[in-house]
UniProtKB/TrEMBL annotation:
Low complexity bias spans: 42-52
Gene3D superfamilies: 3.30.1370.110
Name of this protein: DNA-nicking Smr family endonuclease
Keyword Hydrolase: yes
The species this protein was found in: Aurantimonas endophytica
Pfam families reported in the protein's UniProt record: Smr
Domain Smr: 93-180
Assigned keywords, A-Z: Endonuclease, Hydrolase, Nuclease
SMART domains: SMR (SM00463)
Domain of life of the native organism: Bacteria
GO molecular function, one term: endonuclease activity
Taxonomy of the source species: Bacteria, Pseudomonadati, Pseudomonadota, Alphaproteobacteria, Hyphomicrobiales
Length: 183
């Protein structure tokens, strides 16, 4: 028979907080809160001084979403309609297995054609990419660079906004794109 491990002080404190959010049964009371456990942080060693001529690049955490310059996200009501299928996706392009140059050329041509045809909302499928150790060595390059392309001067006249797609349209590996109206 397995022995159950007891709750740590932090787990007990969290559980008591959750239990206090519920109404207790008749004849029962709220569980007592255990005393808080203070954890002393170890002293951090002093950082060495940077070289005076060194150029430090800004560091962004991996979980922070990328910042898109001068592009607007698709409005929430429009995005919700696209996701639920109440607003049709006029066309789609799949960039899987393409090199960056080939994908760039195909995407420019697709968006120019979509704009000429008067299409408003399209789906661009970039793929999610594999892990660093995958058989193909792919790490989602197109997934990262396509949003950067949209902020560039070549795509600005074609794209008025974009946002990540819902799971059933490709999730992290696809983008809803609003095509700019021709001038």
């Amino acid at each position: 028979m397995r022995r159950r491990r007891g709750l740590s002080a932090e787990e007990a404190r969290l559980w008591a907080g959750v239990a206090r959010s519920a109404i207790p049964l008749k004849g029962r009371s709220y569980p007592p809160l255990p005393p808080e456990v203070r954890v002393e942080k170890p002293a951090t060693p002093a950082k060495p001084a940077a070289k005076p001529n060194a150029v430090l690049a800004p560091v962004r955490p991996k979980h922070e979403p990328p910042v898109y310059l001068s592009q607007h996200a698709i409005e929430k009501p429009t995005r919700r309609k696209l996701a639920k299928g109440r607003l049709a996706i006029d066309a789609r392009i799949d960039l899987h297995e393409m090199t960056q140059q080939r994908a760039h050329d195909a995407l420019v041509g697709f968006l120019r054609q979509s704009q000429a045809m008067g299409l408003r909302h399209v789906l661009v499928i970039t793929g999610r990419g594999g892990t660093a150790g995958s058989a193909f060595g792919s790490r989602g390059v197109l997934r990262r660079v396509v949003p950067q392309w949209f902020t560039g001067p070549e795509f600005r006249p074609l794209v008025s906004g974009f946002d990540s797609a819902e799971r059933h349209h490709g999730g992290d590996g696809a983008l809803y794109v609003r095509v700019r109206r021709p001038r």
